[in-house]
């Protein structure tokens, strides 16, 4: 293949994916790059195949440089050059493309320069599924989290000065200065406990014991704050994802806004690839499904029935018959809304008309299947 | 006993229990097998009684092979051979039966081959009580949990390269390659802190301190996610278990669906073996009980009254008299529904008719007892 | 003092307190006993004052024996001898009284026999404030907690056999048997990480890393379960404590059951010793108080006003005036019900009549004070 | 500058800030003081620039003494001398001003005396943002937290006596007394695990394993309690902050108390400095904002529109158009109320009139902008 053919193809490919966070190719490049960077530092491994390792590292770097250049060009055409270049994705792309070359050019030892290849892992960040959720929790709870951090640092400082005072004469080697005692305090308060610096005087041990117990407390506070934040965020995130889908399901279309809000709170969204088994015949079921997008295939005896957008299935499980009567699997990329037995019952208690609709449809199907 | 008698009896026993997850016999076999496998590796213990250990190991293996074969035959008769063989229970049974023999046949050292006996502990999995609940939490929260794992790995990679760069010249022995630094990073970020690899340069310690504090954060996030998932799952699980039982209790039969949903949310299911003390006379009580299945015995002065399905007792505790008037214990395997004082009061505020029924029945009993 | 005077006095004192869990005397005896038992094992400390230590230990033991005998006699008179003797408190008292004497009689070295004095700390158990709450959480959540424990043990077993297999040839000293590897696994999975047994082969370290990350997961599950249980229990416990008190406050007497249930859910009970400052003048306030039992003293300019059972104060903070106008302190042992600003507002939105009553009373007081 | 000019200026400055918790100057002084105190103990660093370090330390101390004196004078003039002197802030100020001088006067080695400078970090405490919230959680949950602490101590005592008994003969050096075993127990139960004291007998290791698993339990309980407390406190704190602001926004003025309580529960307060970007054009939005105080600037094509107190913006995101149409940034110190999409929908379901108002205003703006 001549360069004249490969380059345009690659450019087209990268352009097409400029809007998406990560392509499979980029994941492979990141994994290969970081693995090779790691092997570079293992003397025996590097001595075995130095050329391969160097070649792969260069290939990865070339890919990232290329990707960055193509994205920049693509974005400039759309008039969003600076929007991209200054966005977090743009900065990460720039670092991935420029860090190693700049280090090599500045005369650094190649083995050291390639270590910067570890920054390529940052390219994975935007692709992390629940990241937005995590970030929101950290932002909303930043106040209390910061308080705990300040308390943590205060305990560290007070404890290390106390310990320095108590241990410096007995262990001048390890507790010879406040920074050394600070190292001990962090290692202890996080309950890491390397054991390289350990108090040996009775009073020093009493202080250390109090630091350890405070460590449990800091842990607990931290976790408690995050748990609280997550509970709120999970409820919120699920509502957002489900709301849009609910309105597209004809079954819920006639409901009033109050009922829709109720329904949205209890439904769970589920995205499935094609040919995935949803229900396995003869297993116990405790939820029903609505097809929000895509298509599923019901494997009835002798024939296969396709259900498209807006259809529902598995409702028998909620109407008293726990054993699944037929296997169901997806035939396309499908988005389902899942309604649990528990929520179904609570919902029915408040909206009896919903129950009647599901009941009528279930009876109609049963007649049809016989 | 001749083989002609033992084998059919065993076959019948295993067949009868093919549907259940674990028999007591299987638990004993697993415990014995794993214990013997452990002793096999302790030189002094093995030297004392090599024949006993070998014999017991073989017996356990024989039991598992036998159990697997019988189950396969039993399932084939029911036309569910492949359903069983490919289910997780079937795969675990197959591993338990085949792993050690295959290892022995492949010419492995017997002492090493028997180590595979540890896989027998997997047979305990389906019998774990809250497992289904645990699995659902992990599935529902898989998104955020995965995010935290990715963040964990990213911190590990970035920190280990930084630490390798900072420490490699001072400690070529322990920080001589990125994989070695990765080991340090995992040990530190999980706050395990063996102390076999410890940074000693000032900058290396600052990086390490940041890793430890991140470790607390990762811990906190992880726990927060799981706590949130559990809160939802516990509510759900209890509702499911209770719902079916509530409808069987005549006391609640006349309630509308909204009230039943309310009641179901506050009742707790309790399964008890026979001859278990439920209420001890003269202790303080703060809940009443409904008998959903089985039978209980009230130990009144001079006589014993049996209460069967649908009856309730302990209601005095909710009507102002905290001291239990009589001991109550189960006489069969019994399923109870427990109604706490708190929930009783909240319930009564919304459904005053329930209170009247309980009150009337309590008065009737008091008259009767005098 | 002759023995004839002391003994009856002591007997009367212990009898009087037989119903209560712990007297101050018992706390002192436990603290002294355990401290002396500890000193007994410190050679230099014991050599300094062996007679004092022995004498104090004997005195503590004598107290516990005496207390147990008096309680037994007291209970027998009330016809509850066996109820007490078999209750947990009775068993703990018996252990405290008999363990050391029996050990001494059985010919054990006195220094070893006195170690059993540590069992005296068990006498503190019934006096722990939130214990009942803790126990209920553990009982209600026992299912999932047990599951996590089983999973923990399974990971420990599988990991230790894998590690034994991978490390036994390289480190026969520390990984020479499965029990030794089990020790490593527990130390690692709990993230304790002593560092006395550490894998050094690459594959062994990969297994260890997975064990550590599982450790975080086990931690997280455990905590998540307990957090969920606690949330429910705290709400419940507060409701129980508050309910009884609410009905005694005339202010709430005219409310219907639904409103009372609402009020009970938002009030918090607070028990205070005499002469405790509740409100400090000129500080910011965000709650009001109801006197459920006891008496408080309002420090108005020039005179002191006493408020008894059923009165309320601090209501200005909820009606727009955040600065406290007067100091208030208890004059007897007092039980207060605290109503937070947040809950007050939510409550008023649903029960506007409550707001009017508080408003009217506040205006009346203002007129009175001018 | 002569002293005659500097002193009055400084006095005025400190007086003006006497009411506030911390000035930037004080933060700088604390940071400098603690850093110098730390450097004082590092021999090489101190040898490089002893005069600078001493001078800076003295300057910091002088600042704190001066600040304390000025505050005392300021408070005496307001007649609140004792209120301030005995308040926690006053005590911390006094310690910061007097601890080091008193230590120096009492003849302590200067290097040791200056260590007390670490107490200056206490001055940061009142400025910690979420501290009040943290303290309330600790107070409200003090009962269960104390129980866990008592259980922690009981396990520590029982385990250390058991371990002392099991290990004293094998390791007289490390397990030679109960206090030594207590040190081991605390290090183990907090899962710190230094590894300086490790049991080696089989039974000792079994006890240690149980202690470690209990450690997980203690952790879990602790965290669970704190998480529960935090969930309640966060909801409460947000309500308090938001309530006052909501009533000032004309948009909500006509709502009834029930609706206001509903709205308050879902709004989040956000305080922003001037010139902060709130909305970035072309990003996805999922919340709208109300200006509670301050002013924001909408960057429309060709002109800038200022929105003052009571205005709202970003409402398009809630009415179906997710892409933000214009950038918005603050022009003054601004307090915003944030309404999330999720909460908006839930709110609209219950208060349809709110939706209409927002809808009408949005349409009016659209017309205007065209």
Automatic annotation (TrEMBL), chains A, B, C, D:
Matches recorded under SUPFAM superfamilies: cAMP-binding domain-like, Voltage-gated potassium channels
Matching SMART domains: cNMP (SM00100)
Keywords of this entry: cAMP, cAMP-binding, Cell membrane, Ion channel, Ion transport, Ligand-gated ion channel, Membrane, Nucleotide-binding, Potassium, Potassium channel, Potassium transport, Signal, Transmembrane, Transmembrane helix, Transport
Any GO molecular function: cAMP binding
GO terms of biological process kind: action potential
Keyword Nucleotide-binding: yes
Compartments reported by the entry: Cell membrane
Cellular component GO terms, alphabetical: voltage-gated potassium channel complex
TM region(s), chain numbering: 52-70, 82-106, 112-131, 143-162, 174-194, 206-231
Assigned protein family: Belongs to the potassium channel family.
Oligomeric and partner information: Homotetramer.
Protein name in UniProt: pH-gated potassium channel KcsA
Organism: Bradyrhizobium septentrionale
Lineage: Bacteria, Pseudomonadati, Pseudomonadota, Alphaproteobacteria, Hyphomicrobiales
């Amino acid at each position: 293949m001549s360069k004249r053919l490969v380059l345009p193809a690659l450019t087209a490919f990268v352009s097409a994916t400029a809007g998406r966070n990560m392509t499979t190719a980029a994941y492979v490049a990141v994994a290969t790059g970081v693995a090779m960077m790691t092997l570079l530092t293992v003397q025996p491994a590097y001595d075995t195949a130095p050329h391969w390792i160097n070649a792969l590292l260069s290939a990865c770097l070339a890919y990232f440089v290329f990707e960055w250049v193509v994205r920049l060009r693509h974005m400039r055409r759309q008039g969003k050059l600076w929007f991209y270049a200054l966005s977090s994705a743009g900065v990460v792309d720039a670092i991935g493309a420029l860090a190693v070359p700049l280090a090599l050019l500045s005369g650094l030892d190649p083995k050291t320069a390639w270590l910067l290849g570890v920054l390529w892992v940052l390219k994975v960040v935007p692709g992390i599924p629940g990241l937005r959720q995590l970030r929101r929790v950290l932002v909303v709870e930043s106040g209390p989290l910061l308080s705990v951090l300040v308390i943590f640092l205060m305990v560290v400082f007070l404890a290390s000065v106390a310990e320095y005072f108590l241990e410096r004469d007995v262990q001048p080697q390890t507790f010879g200065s406040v920074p050394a005692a600070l190292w001990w305090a962090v290692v202890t308060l996080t309950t890491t406990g390397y054991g390289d610096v350990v108090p040996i005087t009775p009073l020093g041990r009493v202080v250390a014991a109090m630091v350890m117990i405070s460590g449990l407390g800091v842990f607990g506070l931290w976790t408690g704050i995050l748990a609280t934040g997550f509970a709120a965020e999970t409820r919120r995130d699920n509502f957002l994802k489900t709301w849009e889908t609910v309105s597209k399901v004809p079954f819920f279309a006639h409901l009033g806004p109050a009922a829709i809000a109720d329904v949205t709170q209890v439904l769970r969204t589920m995205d499935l690839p094609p040919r995935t088994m949803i229900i396995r015949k003869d297993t116990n079921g405790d939820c029903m499904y609505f097809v929000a997008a895509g298509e599923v295939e019901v494997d009835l005896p002798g024939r296969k029935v396709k259900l498209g957008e807006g259809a529902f299935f598995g409702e028998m499980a909620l109407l008293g018959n726990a054993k699944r009567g037929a296997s169901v699997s997806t035939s396309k990329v499908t988005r389902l809304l899942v309604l649990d037995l528990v929520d179904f019952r609570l919902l029915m208690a408040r909206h009896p008309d919903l129950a009647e609709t599901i009941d009528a449809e279930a009876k109609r199907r049963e007649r049809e299947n016989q």
